[in-house]
Fold this protein.
Amino acid sequence: MVTFFNIKLLFYKILVIYDIIITMGVYILEVKYKDDRMDKLKEIPIENIKGISKIMIEHLHNNNINTVYELFNYFPYRYENYEVININRASDNEKVTVVGQVVTEPVFSYYRRTSRLVFSILVNDLVIKVIAFNRDFLRNKISKLMYVTVTGKYEKNKGQITAQKLSLKAMDDDRIEPVYSLKDVNKVYFQNILKKAYEQYGSLINEDLPLAIMEKYRLISSRDLYNFVHFPINNEQVRQVSRRVKYEELLKFQLKIMYLKKREHNYFNKKPKEFDEGLVNGFVNNLPFTLTNDQNTVVREILNDLKSDYQMNRLVQGDVGSGKTVVAIISLYANYLSGYQGCLMAPTEILSEQHFKYLQSIFKKYGLTVDLLTSSVTGKARNQILENLNSGKIDILVGTHALISEGVYFHKLGLIIVDEQHRFGVNQRKVLREKGDKLDALFLSATPIPRTLALTAFGDMDVSSIKEMPKGRKEIKTYLIRSQLEKRLVNFIDNIIKENQQVYIITPLIEESEKIDLENAYHVYEKYQEYFKDKYRVGLLHGKMNNNEKEEVMKSFLNNEIQILVSTTVVEVGVNVVNATLMIIIDAHRFGLAQLHQLRGRVGRSDLQSYCILVSDYENDKAKERLEILTKTNNGFEIAEEDLRLRGPGDFFGSRQSGLPEFKMADLVNDYAILEVARDDAKMIIETNELFSNPEYFALKYYIEQELIDSNELFD
Ligand code: ADP
Ligand code: MG
């Protein structure tokens, strides 16, 4: 007994010591990796660089370069390329670099203040005349038979090059020179300082990327990186720099997001949902229509998420009318079969009601209990719903923000779906998430954005896209007209309404002034009331109305009590007024393309032919080109890509969401392929816990933690 006790004690002692050793080991490793040499560079002022002059220090400070780290990271914004080319292949007026032998004595002349040096060189088998202005100092240095390298514009038919750069030797290698955007700093001096600093402190540059990754993609080391970026000897080195920097930037960016999300919710501990797939398939087959391929794919993705041990966090983006609701419905059904409650939150009462009725009609024959909770449900009715929800009698609850109000407790919530998700704040989505334990979340968005940006803007969300429209949908015919033709629209409108169809007229939003918006809307409203005085009813919808007033107007429109609805952009998203077939947008150039597309999506919701008229006195060809995109395609994804191309990612989301990262080299649009690779790697690093357990990754982890200290609020 005693011996056993002793052995046990010994065993514990060993365990404790072992534990200490392990902890220390990790600690030492952490310290080693945390003792980031690159960080030291952040603390070394440029004053410490040997031989740097006072003036240079001052100038560098003026360029916001204060530390050696900042010096190294002051990247050139482009490179001047002096690749020696075969002159026979050069085209007229091309900028070329050639090596040639001088075949005539130089002739020197002055014209006013300008000096001119002319001589000929033999390049391959061509004699080329070289003209160099203001190179007095070369006058006596150029002589027959010597070799020179000339860079400049080549005028082919004159057989002459006007030299921008002239060097008195034959360059055998391609040359490439960095160009910096520096204020008042001579590039030669700048590079001298860089060289000195690199010699003195280059050894302190550490490696942020783990070896495994560097080997996998054959990336250059960061020490090479700083060498090549400032002192490249050929294009290949520049290319290698860009490969490495882009990858590293995108990897770090993706890691940062995922790391944070991982800290927020623990992903991989959900109880997988179990349901009979045969039942789900039967449900799908019993729908009144066949799913499109895209709908099918998205449904599969969602079912896989439900069955997995991670919490689904998926965004489904698809054009208005692409059929996102039914995808949500199928997901809710699978979730129900697994024994969980589900909920669907929509931004407005009308939309919630529409969803509620639709879900009820579909789920009735399957015995599911669906209910509706909005802020107009009060008193006894509300209490009853809350009670049924809490006891598990309600299977699916549809509603507005009321769903996230206090007192709403689910019995066993397994799936939340947020429709028109951009209409809700991050916080509201979070509160809904907290109504259940380790639940799955699905977000629906009718604002298609290019995949590249979706990956970025939505961080770690998985993104599914429905690009294909259900069969039989007619394209909305879209026309761009000048405002002088607006009068003729009256006839068109009349014809539409005679067919018992309805019309939207959207008046522009001028952000600076709601007052002007309102005046605009009133003006248009009165104008059309005047036109159609006793014939049709015209309604008005604007941002100054409260929600109830807005919903009243929307309801009248839905019931065709109003035939023409004049509205600012507040016109409700998602609401299905199947009978509306004409959308007129006034001053269309004031809207973003994506927004115009959204607005247009209010019509074309049936098999009737729908129209969209963009009224605009656009001021230039560019504005016209932009608007014409809409006349050419009905595909929201294409429009988004075009919009992105024309406006760049910064503007794409508007100023409000300019939280997009700024990279030195990576470009979210053009480096999409690298982004995807980096994203997969980041995911793996996080999933396999490398970041936390493998010392090779500690530098990355440290970097991310440092970054997060500054940018916590960005990710909420
Ligand atoms: P959104 O993606 O804008 O939310 P909805 O889900 O409201 O679109 O769908 C628009 C309309 O298309 C609805 O009336 C819906 O019943 C119908 N629909 C959805 N999927 C299909 C399909 N595969 N085939 C035919 N009609 C469909
Ligand atoms: Mg919808």
